[in-house]
Amino acid sequence: MRKNKIEYAVVCAVGKVRRNNEDNFCCCGHIREDVNSVEDVAYSGTADADANELFAVFDGMGGEACGEVASYVAANQSLVFLRSKDAYQEYLYELTMQINAKILQATEARSLVLMGTTAAMLQVCSEDVYILNSGDSRIYKLSDHELRQISQDHISVAYGGKAITQFLGMPEGYEPAPYAAKGKFRPGDMFLLCSDGVTDMLTDEEICRIIDDKMDVDILARALVDAALDKGGVDNTTAILLRFSKG
User: Fold this and answer.
1) What is the C-alpha to C-alpha distance for residues 227 and 215, in angstroms, rounded to an integer?
2) Does the reported pTM lie above 0.70?
3) What is the pLDDT confidence band of residue 157, given thresholds at 50, 70 and 90?
């Protein structure tokens, strides 16, 4: 029996306005290791859909108050968690709580009031897809040429500004309440995880036009990030693109 295969690509790029990159990710064992670098980071490859893989995008919050540290803590804790995890059941909520605790520890160690990160996470196990998100980093599914957001935004818009109402690193007294869901995939389906550096610059229609293509996913992920940067690139931009197929 032929196994399901995942083609994956991740691109993480600094924006055209910010001087540092507060985004990070976890993708098939890869994270952005050097939080001080402003160089683009990109990986691509294939994975077994039965391998219980994790794909995640983290967008750090806090600006000069170490948002890049929060997103790194999240990415690194994801690796630590996965290396010690034997069970194949859904693990995203457990991992999220561990990340939240680690960020709180890092915040206290740096004598900061607040440090946090959004999260968009997807776990693949056999034919099941588990998702979890906190904040405004999004997860989309592209199936039969139709793009649909399957995550939920945790934002409040007031006085012309955008406030994140859920994130990892929420202080004592505030209970993390990420959105979680479970679904299936079919060969040919694509999933996109991205920071708001993509979605603030591009409409869903523009995103669909770019990624709904037969080209290799690394080319499409790069094209998506480049399009967001060309539109202004006011924030750092990270995208993980997945395509499912038979082995």
Assistant:
1) 16
2) yes
3) confident
Confidence bin at 231 (pLDDT 50/70/90)? very high
Side-chain half-sphere of 90: how many Cα atoms within 13 Å?
Answer: 14
> What is the distance between the alpha carbons of residues 117 and 45, in angstroms, rounded to a whole number?
26
Residue 46: per-residue pLDDT: 95
What is the per-residue pLDDT across 127-142, written as a single tens digit (0 to 9) for each? 889 999 999 999 999 9
Q: How far apart are CA 165 and CA 134, in angstroms?
A: 9
Q: Are 133 and 121 in contact (CB under 8 A)?
A: yes
Q: Residue 116's pLDDT is what?
A: 95
Domains in the chain, CATH or no CATH each: 4-246 (3.60.40.10)
C-alpha to C-alpha distance for 43 and 90, rounded to whole angstroms: 25
Q: How far apart are CA 109 and CA 69, in angstroms?
A: 12
Q: Which residue has the tokens 């976890």?
A: 26
Among 187, 186, 185, 184, CA closest to 245? 187
